[in-house]
C-alpha cells in the first residue's frame, strides 16, 4: 500500500489526508504542534475556549464534500450553524452596517447610507455572480500546471477585467465611502490588499450570499476534531510534536542549470541576500552553481532523527518554508531561493484572546471596526510596513452563538488587528505590550466597550513573531503568499511540485489560495493529482548513495 506523509494538520492537510486515506492510501500526518489544527488551533483557559485562527465558515458545501468523500455526512460529526446577520461593521463616523444574507435586511441597511444602494447592490451581485461562475465554480477546482493552462484562461480574465482591483470594481457600484469599504474589505480575510487584489477576489460577498456564513458549535476547532476523528476511523495515523527537518529526495536525472537560474524568467526578483529572514535559513545556497538533480520523494526526516518512508509527500506547511527549508537547493529548478524570495507575502496579524466576565450588546458574533483611514492604513500595512497609530479590527464573540465557550455571562473575545509582516521594522519584542495597551484602551474609551480592562480574567496574545516561531510562517505572514493577479493560478506554487516528483502542496500558498474555501479546494486538487499520478501499491524511490540523508 502506498505510503503518504502529510506535513501539517491544518484544514488543507487534514482534508487531503482524509480524501487519500478514503481512497486506500496509507496516510501518516506529521504535526509540529502538540495537537492538530495548524493555524486553526484552540486554547482553553479559565473556562474560556478560544479559536486561535479561522472563525468563519463560508461555502459549507466544501466541508460537506470532504466528509462525503469518506462516505459520511457532516452532520454526523459536527454541528455547523448559520449566522444572521453575517457581521456588524462599524465606521469612524459612528454608523454601523449589519451585513446580512436576508434581502429585506440588506435593503434596509443599504438605504441608511445611499438612497439607490439596493439597486446598486443588485447589479453588484449580478457582476460578482458572473465572476464567481467563471473564476471560482469553473476554475478554482482545476490545477494550473502549465503555461497552456494559464494561456487558455487569459481571454476569460480579460473579459472579467481581472487587471482591476477589488476596490476599483466596487466603486463602479457604490458611491458612499462606507459601502465601498463594506464591499471591498474581504481580500483582507485571505491576506490581500483590496486596492491591488485582482477583481476576481470580489466574489466573497456573492459566495457569502449564496451559501451563508456559518460557525461550528464548540468552536471552529470542532471541525478540526471532526476531521481528525474521521481520519482515525479510516485507519490513518497522526503524530503530533513532530517537526519535519527534510523532505528526502532520491536523485534521478541531472538537468543543466546555466548561470544559476531556475529555468524560469525571474527578472526583477531580489537576490537572496536582500530578502529578510531567508538568507539566514540553514542549508540555503542560493542555487548558484552546479546542475539541477531531478528527483522523487523518498520520505521525510524529523528534527529528532526519526524518518518515514513515503512515495508521496503532501506539504500543508508554509509553502516558502517547504521549499526553502525542507527541499535541498539542488532539487529545486523552479523554486530556487531567488525565486522564492521574490514572492510578496501577505500581511501578518496581532491577536488578543480576552476571557472577559461580561458581554457587550454592540458586538455581534462577528464585528468589524473600520478606521477612518481605509486606504492609508492599508498602505501602512502592506507598503510602508509601519505600525500605524490607528487600526481596523475584527472582533469575534462566539459565546453569542455558543454559550458553552465562556463561563455564564462571559465572552471568549478574539481581537484581530492586521499589521505588517516581519519585513517591516517593528520590533515586536518591545512593541507588543504598548500596542496591546493602546488597542484595549481604544476599545474601552473610544469604541465604547465600557469596563473592558477591568473585566479581563484571562489574556493571551499572538504576534507576527509567533506566526514565524509557532507556525514556521515565512516573515510571520498570516495568510501565506499575497493574492495578487501575478501571484494567482499558474503563478502560485503549483499543487503538484514543479521540482520534485511525488511532492504535492495543499494550503494557502498554492492554488486557489487562502481562506477555508481556498484551502479545502487545494486539498481536493491535491487528492485528485495524487490519485492520477501514483498507484495505490507504489513503493518509495530508493535513496541513491550520492544523496545521503544528511
Provide the descriptors you would attach to this structure in a database record.
single chain, 550 residues, alpha/beta, 5-stranded parallel sheet, 21 strands
- Kindly state the number of beta strands: 21
Structural class: alpha/beta
Average pLDDT, to the nearest integer?
90
Q: Provide the low-confidence segments as ranges.
A: 254-290, 545-550
- Strand arrangement within the widest β-sheet reads 8-7-16-17-18-15-19
Question: Could you outline the blueprint of secondary structure elements for this entry?
Answer:
Blueprint: E1 3-7, H1 11-23, E2 26-31, E3 42-45, E4 48-51, E5 57-58, H2 60-69, E6 80-82, E7 87-90, E8 96-99, H3 103-111, H4 117-137, H5 147-160, H6 166-171, H7 177-182, H8 204-211, E9 213-216, H9 221-233, E10 237-240, E11 244-255, E12 292-302, E13 307-309, E14 312-315, H10 319-326, H11 337-341, E15 348-356, E16 366-369, H12 374-382, E17 393-396, E18 411-419, H13 428-447, H14 452-455, E19 456-462, H15 464-471, E20 500-501, E21 503-505, H16 515-533
Helix pairs in contact: 1-9, 1-16, 2-16, 4-8
What does this structure look like?
With 550 residues, the protein is of the alpha/beta class. Among the domains are: 128 residues, no CATH class; 125 residues, Guanine Nucleotide Dissociation Inhibitor, domain 2 (2-Layer Sandwich), CATH 3.30.519. The chain is 31% helix and 20% strand. It contains 16 helices and 21 strands. The chain has a seven-stranded mixed sheet. Strands 10-2-1-14-21 form a five-stranded parallel sheet, covered by helices on one side. Strands 11, 12, 13 and 20 form a four-stranded mixed sheet that branches. β12 and β13 form a beta hairpin. The radius of gyration is 23 Å and the shape is globular. The two termini are 27 Å apart. 53% of the residues are buried.
Amino acid at each position: 500500500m502506498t505510503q503518504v506523509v502529510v506535513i501539517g494538520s491544518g484544514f488543507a492537510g487534514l482534508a487531503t489526508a482524509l480524501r487519500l486515506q478514503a481512497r486506500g492510501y496509507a496516510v501518516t500526518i506529521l504535526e509540529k504542534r502538540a495537537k492538530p489544527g495548524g493555524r486553526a488551533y484552540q486554547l482553553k483557559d479559565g473556562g474560556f475556549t478560544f479559536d486561535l485562527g479561522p472563525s468563519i465558515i463560508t461555502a459549507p458545501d466544501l466541508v460537506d464534500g470532504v466528509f462525503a468523500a469518506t462516505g459520511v455526512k457532516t452532520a454526523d460529526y459536527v454541528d455547523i450553524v448559520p449566522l444572521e446577520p453575517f457581521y456588524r461593521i462599524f465606521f469612524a463616523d459612528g454608523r454601523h452596517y449589519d451585513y446580512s444574507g436576508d434581502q429585506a435586511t440588506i435593503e434596509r441597511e443599504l438605504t441608511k447610507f445611499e438612497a439607490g444602494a439596493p439597486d446598486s447592490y443588485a447589479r453588484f451581485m449580478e457582476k460578482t455572480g458572473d465572476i464567481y461562475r467563471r473564476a471560482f465554480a469553473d476554475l478554482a477546482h482545476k490545477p494550473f500546471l502549465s503555461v497552456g493552462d494559464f494561456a487558455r484562461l487569459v481571454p476569460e480574465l480579460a473579459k472579467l477585467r481581472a487587471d482591476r482591483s477589488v476596490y476599483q470594481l466596487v466603486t463602479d457600484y457604490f458611491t458612499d465611502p462606507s459601502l465601498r469599504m463594506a464591499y471591498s474589505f474581504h481580500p483582507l480575510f485571505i491576506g490581500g490588499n483590496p486596492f491591488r487584489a485582482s477583481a476576481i477576489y470580489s466574489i466573497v460577498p456573492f459566495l457569502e450570499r449564496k451559501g451563508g456564513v456559518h460557525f461550528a458549535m464548540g468552536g471552529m476547532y470542532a471541525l478540526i476534531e471532526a476531521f481528525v476523528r474521521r481520519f482515525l476511523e479510516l485507519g490513518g495515523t497522526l503524530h503530533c510534536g513532530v517537526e519535519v527537518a527534510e523532505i528526502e529526495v532520491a536523485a534521478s536525472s541531472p538537468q543543466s542549470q546555466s548561470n544559476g537560474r531556475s529555468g524560469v524568467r525571474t527578472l526583477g526578483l531580489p537576490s537572496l541576500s536582500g530578502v529578510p529572514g531567508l538568507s539566514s535559513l540553514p542549508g540555503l545556497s542560493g542555487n548558484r552553481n552546479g546542475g539541477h538533480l531531478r528527483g522523487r520523494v523518498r520520505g521525510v526526516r524529523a528534527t529528532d532523527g526519526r524518518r518515514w518512508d513515503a512515495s508521496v509527500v503532501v506539504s500543508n506547511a508554509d509553502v516558502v518554508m517547504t521549499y526553502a527549508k525542507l527541499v535541498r537547493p539542488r532539487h529545486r529548478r523552479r523554486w530556487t531561493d531567488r525565486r522564492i524570495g521574490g514572492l510578496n507575502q501577505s500581511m501578518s496579524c496581532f491577536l488578543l484572546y480576552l476571557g472577559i466576565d461580561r458581554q457587550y450588546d454592540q458586538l455581534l458574533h462577528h464585528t468589524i471596526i473600520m478606521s477612518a483611514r481605509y486606504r492609508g492604513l492599508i498602505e501602512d500595512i502592506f507598503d510602508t510596513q509601519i505600525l500605524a497609530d490607528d487600526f481596523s479590527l475584527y472582533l469575534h464573540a462566539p459565546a453569542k452563538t455558543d454559550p458553552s465557550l465562556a463561563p455564564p455571562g462571559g465572552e471568549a473575545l478574539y481581537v484581530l488587528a492586521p499589521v505588517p509582516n516581519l519585513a517591516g521594522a517593528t520590533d515586536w519584542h518591545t512593541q507588543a505590550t504598548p500596542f496591546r495597551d493602546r488597542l484595549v484602551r481604544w476599545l474601552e474609551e473610544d469604541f465604547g466597550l465600557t469596563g473592558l480592562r477591568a473585566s479581563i480574567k484571562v489574556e493571551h496574545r499572538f504576534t507576527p513573531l509567533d506566526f514565524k516561531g509557532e507556525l514556521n510562517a515565512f516573515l510571520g505572514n498570516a495568510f501565506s503568499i499575497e493574492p495578487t493577479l501575478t501571484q494567482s493560478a499558474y503563478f502560485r506554487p503549483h499543487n503538484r511540485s514543479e521540482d520534485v516528483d511525488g511532492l504535492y502542496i495543499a494550503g494557502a500558498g498554492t492554488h486557489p489560495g487562502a481562506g477555508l474555501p481556498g484551502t479545502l479546494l487545494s486539498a481536493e486538487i491535491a487528492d485528485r493529482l495524487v490519485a492520477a499520478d501514483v498507484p495505490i501499491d507504489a513503493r518509495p524511490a530508493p535513496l541513491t548513495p550520492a544523496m545521503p540523508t544528511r
